[in-house]
Amino acid sequence: MRIAVVGGGIGGLCLAHGLRGAGVDVAVYERDLSRTDRLQGYRVHINPDGAAALRECLPAAGWERFERSAGTDGNGFGFLTEQLKPLLVLDPDEEKHYSASRITLRQVLLDGLDVRFGKRFVRYEQGDAITLHFEDGTTAGCDVLVGADGIRSRVREQYLPHAGTEEVGVVAVAGKLFLDENDWIPRSLLDRANTIVPTSRCGMFLASHDGFGHTDADGALFDNTRPYLMWAYAAHGLDLTEGLQQTVLRRISQWSPDLQRIVRSSHSDTVSQWRIRSSKPIERWESTNVTLLGDAIHAMTPMRGIGANVALRDAQLLARKLVEEGVEGIRAYETEMYDYGFAAVRDSLRAARQFAEGSPLSRTLFRTVLRTASAVPALKRAMF
User: Which end of the chain, N or C, is less packed with Cβ atoms under 10 Å?
Assistant: First the structure.
């Protein structure tokens, strides 16, 4: 059985490792020209489910390398007012969480795999076997095609043309503040991840990355030898015509001076914006020898921080089913993935709307609920 994975992101590479470790013939086709083309991005939270998938799929040396290059991310979570007054602080999870650089994690996942770079997928021809066509005029054959090519998946566009994503009306701006240049950050913003819950229709998320460095075999450094605080501001219908940082600073001009200073002091080349999208709900489809994983099928908003972990769960499950059942395993994979994947999409969409929308009254009530939960341990346990 020959398996082709289109897309060399976190989910596709994890799947390829799981299959390769079981002796399955697998090739990854990636549009980037080289492994160092995509050196950008922020931290990614790897929860216990995502970590379990990586541990199962990666070879032992790869898992050890991941652990060495990733920081820990298990110091709890805080909900704060825009003046940094605590509303509710959640205790650390007993299970281990990780804070990984997307860049470094991808380098770890690329090691040891047959990745064909510079292969921009165009279309496929489907039968008992599948023929892939690439933009450079070349073709490749396989028995199973896995589209792991992200939110704008070309595989999905051909296979499930009625699927796809839609904007949810929320615009986000994110940036990095390098901590080796800024030693004034309040400790509470570094010891745990925090969400700012103002009464206006917006929100801010902050989380630190401890800067565990990683150097590849050629000695090239990949972005995370420097610790940083990542921040992300999001609002419904945000107008960015006056500039990214300037817009955020204007919107938070009455917030804590520390939050304003974090945005103002961030290097402009680390600041980016995106219009948040979410997968459209679709009915269950008939399984074939083509399938999808991660953002290619169930793209979700970032407000729950689970997108990468769901993609890793996809990879773990699909690898198991293909190894155990061959092509027939795709049906079992898709049945399970459809349920938990689109449940995560719905959950993340609700979180996005709670984060960036809602009337001042509803947001004031939410803050009251958080304060009440903080004061009543039984309520806190029931809610979280």
Answer: C
